[in-house]
Amino acid sequence: MKNNLVKADLFRHGGLTGVKGFIKGWGYPGFRFVFLLRMTAKYSKYSLRGIFFRLLKRRARIKYGYDINSGAQIGEGLYLSSHPGHIIIGPIKIGKNCNINQSVTIGRSFRGGKIGRPTIDDYVWIGTGAVIVGNIHIGKNVLIAPNSFVNIDVPDNSLVIGNPAKVFPKDNPTKYYINNVLPAEQLLHIAN
User: Fold this and answer.
1) Which of 93, 94, 130, 159 sits at 20 to 30 Å (Cα–Cα) from 109?
2) What are the structural domains of the chain?
3) What's the count of helices (H) and strands (E) in the chain, helices before strands?
4) Does the CA dihedral 21-26-28-30 come out positive or negative?
């Protein structure tokens, strides 16, 4: 695992960078949990570091209510809301620069026509209390409004509202919602 993931995650929290930024970011429960999630993915389950980070992640899960499966494939720039409230995410695939607010559930559906887990693309903003379930695909640049129940495919550049979900095409729906995105050129510079 490259440090790009952690640096992009840190930058999403108010544009923080470097050691001073990391120390300040450690005070944000959302960043702290994402960092521990990245470390559990980086180190073997049975290594000393792996055990250490899994114990810290477990403690953070209980303290803050974030429950994200270590098998989830999550792109750089993940932003978890630092407000108290459960976030439950199964072993799914999430793209880069996504925001997930409190009381969100993303997981598997065991019934209906879309049995399976969702896939979420880049630049998706998920509002408080949203539920996303089933073998569905959420496209790029999508805003899912608070308290929406999504069990249908959502195309790129869409706004999703309601229970059941209604999809509306919208140009740049996540503008002003997804902030502090580390430019791709900077990520390439960090990697070298």
Assistant:
1) 159
2) 1-64 (no CATH), 92-173 (2.160.10.10)
3) 5, 15
4) positive
Label residue 129 left, alpha or beta by phi (over 0 means left) and psi (-120 to 50 means alpha).
Answer: left
Q: How many other C-beta atoms lie within 10 A of the C-beta of residue 44?
A: 10
Confidence tier at 2 by pLDDT (50, 70, 90): low
The predicted model scores a pTM of 0.89
Task: Categorize the per-residue pLDDT at 19 as very low, low, confident or very high, splitting at 50, 70 and 90.
Answer: very high
Hey, is 12 helix, strand or coil?
helix
| Residue 85, Cβ density class (10 Å: 0-12 exposed, 13-18 middle, ≥19 buried) | middle
How does pLDDT run across 95-129, given as a tens digit for each residue?
A: 999 999 999 999 988 877 788 899 999 999 999 99
CB 116 within 8 A of CB 133: no
CA angle (165 as vertex; 161, 167 as ends), nearest 5:
65
CB 153 within 8 A of CB 174: no
Consecutive H or E run containing 89 = strand 87-89
